[in-house]
Structure formats: C-alpha cells, structure tokens
C-alpha cells in the first residue's frame, strides 16, 4: 500500500538510524544535535534526496510559495461567479509552478486589509491575488506602500492607482461585439441596461455599447439607457420602463442576471426583444441567452505570471505589467432578428 | 496611512535597536546571536507583544493551522457547484477559528493522493477536508493508514470505509420530502429520473423517492424510473422516454440540471408535468424549479469542527464523528397540481 514516492522524515530517520525528532532537530535546531549525528543525518538527507518541510525551507529561503486570495461574500450567491471560476483556474496554474493558494474570507476592503496584515505577520505569504478592484481601492494602496507583491484581476479604474500589475478582460470590447452582432442581425433600435454610473466595470461595459452605437450612426443618448442593480427583479422593472419609453428591438445588458430581467419584462409586455448578457453564467445557459464569455483560465495564468515576476521567481515572458484580454461572443437563442412591427408598439 | 495594529519584525528591530536580521536570528537561530543581544531582542518581543511568523511558530508547535482542500475539475462548469459554495463556507468557518484553507488541484483520486503526499512532506498541513466521496475511495484509505487528520463532506458509501469522520446531507430525506410534497399537491403518478445505479449519492436520492412511494401505496417499479448522466440534453432524452412510457404527472429528479431536461421534454411533448430538482442551483432559480437546498454553511462548520477535534484543537461539542444533516424543500413554479387529463395522454 505504500505509494509514497517522496522521501519522508521517517525514511531519513530509518536510514540514519536516529529518531524522527533527531532528524527534525538536525534541520531546525542543528546546535542541539551532536556533530557526528548531525553529519550522519545530513548525509542521509543528501543521499535520499529528502526535501525538508515547507516551514524549514521557508525560514531558509524566505519564500513560502503561497499566495493569498480573498473570497468575498458576494460569491455566496447561488450563481457560480466569475470569482469562483477564477480561483479554480488560479489554483491549477499556481500548482503547476509549485505555488499554492491560501484562502481567506473578507466582506469589505477594510476586512481584507486586516487579513493582509494578519497573513503577512503570521503566515509568511509571498504575495496576493486580488479581485473586485474599484476606484480609490485602499487595498492596493496598502499593499503598494508596504512593497508586498500582488496582482489584481481587474483594473485599478483610476489614474493615480494604475501602476501596480493587473490583468483584466476588456468589457467594452465585449459589449461592442454584442452591439455589432445585434446590428448585423438587422437591429437599429438597440438600448442598454446597465449598472448605476460610477462602477469601473459597469461604466466600461456601457462605453462599449455607446461608442459602437455612435460609430454606427445610431442614438446612444440617455433615453436609450436605464440602470439597475444586479438583481433580476430590479432589472425587470428598469427594463419595463426602457421597453415602454423607446421600444427597442434589442437590449445590450451589463450582466446575465440583468439580461434575464429584460427577457422577463419583454415576455410580460408581449414583445419580441433580442437580448445579450455578460459572463456566460449558468443563468445565460439556462435562459438560452447570447452572452459574452471571459477568458478566465488565461486571465488566471497571466495574473500568476505577473505576481511571480514581482516576487522574483519568474523573469521571462512579456515585460508588460498590465494585460487586457479580449472576451468572446457566445450566440444563443436570444439573438433574434428584429420584428418588423417593433418600434411602433408603445411609443 | 499606517493602519497596522500588529507588531512587525521591523518594529521589534527598532525597539531593540538591532537589525531586522538579528531579530529573525533571535527567533530562528538563537545560537548565532550574542547572549546580551538575544536578551534585549526577547525583551522587546515580549514588551511589544510580537507574534513570530507562522513558519517559526509552526516549528515550535508542530501545527501550521492550515487545512488542505482539493478543487476538482468538475467544478470548472458554468454552474456554481455545491463544492464552490462549500469551500466559501469552509474558508469563512476556518478563519473564525484561526485556520486557513490551502487549495490544491486534482482531477482524479490518484492525483489527489500525490498532492496529499507532496503537501504533507512539504507544506506541513494539519489536515484535509475532502469532497466527492465514493465507494472504495482510495483517498480516505491512504490518509487513514498514515494517521492524517481529515474529514469528508460526503459519506464513505461502503461499509468497510465508514470509520473516519464525515458530514453529509441526507439526500434520501430530500427526495422523500419532494415526493410527499408532490403527493400533497394531488399527484399519484410520480416518476423518478436519476443517475445510473452505483453512485452513492444517486442511489441514496433514488431510495428517498422509492421508499416514500411504497409508503404511500404507489408504484415505484422500474417502469417509473429512468437514468441519465447529469447533462441536461441527455436528461431530456431520458425524460422523453419516461413521459411516453408511463405518462407521469410529476417527476422527482436527482439534480436541477436533470430536472431541466424534464421541463424541456414536457414542453416538447406539450405536457404539464410537475418537476422537482436537487441542489437549489442557479439552474433551478432561473427555471423556477422546486428543488432541495443543502445546508452548506452548516455542513462546513460541522466538518471543520470534526477535523479540528481530530487534530486535537477542539474537544468540546458533540462526540459524534458522523453527522447527517437534513436538507430543505424550496417550492417554486414547477410545483403544479396534476392536470385532470394526465395519465391519459400517450399511454
């Protein structure tokens, strides 16, 4: 039943004919071991190729090969979030480089900073991977001031915090692709349902729609926009207003859950409306909704490379400190052509 | 900007008027520090209440306060899985007890065992939390033989592996509750769509339906059952067969994605069929499907308590080594009453 291929403390002890504790002392407190015993243990360690424990190694190298990652409360939702998918990909990518991910829980920036502090003074992490970046993010300021290696999955979103390494997905390119896709199906009355102004991610996605509409010579003025938080029931109310006001034949949405609100509002009003969401979540899959997929595995690999370069473990690869990756359009059943009657109903 | 409340190596160094390296030596290699300097540093450490690093502490206590948790490839799906929700709850519960969760990736039992071995010889974990248990699970045998503390979220499912600590959710109680709920709505033609025989979780959920049907004096013979894997498109094909064969007015399903297949098959055949799923996932939420919710946060708390008791950190609480928690019925739109015409169509 012994499938261990690694040499253990026990096998070194057996080889050197000493106790397990003596091997441990030879590694961690050599001064308490008799010189001749120490020599024998060190020879056994060399001969068997024993790797001392992470703790002992880390005191020597000052590297723990552990990165910290915060799980926020937002991810407790019944939906599989982008964050969940990211941490899977990150754990896989890290393991391939001999690194591990240590999870911690934080429900606010301040809590996360308290945890940074605790982890740095107690757990000897090599660095952090952050998500959910936003304007004036105190977390990145805190880490930068203390010269702690980190990378964010998400842009800083404000000019004066833009110097740390980050990886992000180009949200504006996603909503631009959705808008062009709908226009290609024949739509010209394309509205936008997004999050309230002021969130980096939300404003970026809105820009992809509005700039593409302008390029196409179509209206992107305020009448064609509504805002809502991410709850489907609130999105449905906002969508109902938008559908009545401008009778769009298509709505580009900031997320899949918001998109579901548009699908439901259109159904209630007996309208045929094309809808695109964002995230390629279970919601879009079940609702048969066209959406934008983020390259999560690639984002995790690039984020890992950036933080390892900061730590000093990696030197190769691109010299870029910021990487903006393109998302992909996923076409499903809500990519319908415009109804010839649309634009006449309710306006 | 200094929001640190913890004492650092630097502040000890400043207080004792020595270098950072000297403080580090005083903790990790006291024999290389001059006795009078060592005394001064140790006094500063005591006066300031400095906590030496986790690595140094762990060499002293032989405890890392870290638990390992494998992320499997199954969780890469677009759905938020039970595993994702469990690890969030586990990280939160662990943190409240001063423990952290270290993630590793494994796509098979053998890979997971290789990682156990590597983590135990390299990273000084205190124990593991395992998911996705199954019959003849080589992982629990491996850990048990090596006396490594661990707990599983999921039963062993075979008699001779049943001695290690585990927490699980009573799946049979869930499908029994779903069956009684449908019967209470007036259904008597209640079929079951499950996974192929031989999976512990799947067989357990089937039993809840079949034993309840028998109690109610209703047929649970093979004509009333079909099996499918968890893919909605395969479930739809199996459901179509089941609907044609016995024209059930309701179908109890082993999972939400399987339940969605029944919803789609019923729609294709123009039938009104009540459906219950299992897991309270995004799929059931979006599809408006009645389902069974697992007590994930409570499961994580109990699993943590069991593994901490094994490690020797906790002694209080229940003495039980095995905890089977009841799930909850979540009633949604697919809880429809039987159509008076059902049972006559297609039979």
TrEMBL record, chains A, B:
The keyword Lipid metabolism appears for this protein: no
Keywords, alphabetical: DNA-binding, Transcription, Transcription regulation
SMART domains the record matches: HTH_LACI (SM00354)
UniProt superkingdom: Bacteria
GO-annotated molecular function: DNA-binding transcription factor activity; transcription cis-regulatory region binding
PROSITE patterns associated with the record: HTH_LACI_2
Domain HTH lacI-type: 7-61
Record flagged with keyword Transport: no
UniProt-listed PANTHER family: HTH-TYPE TRANSCRIPTIONAL REGULATOR GALS, LACI-RELATED TRANSCRIPTIONAL REPRESSOR
Name of the protein: HTH-type transcriptional repressor CytR
Gene: cytR_14
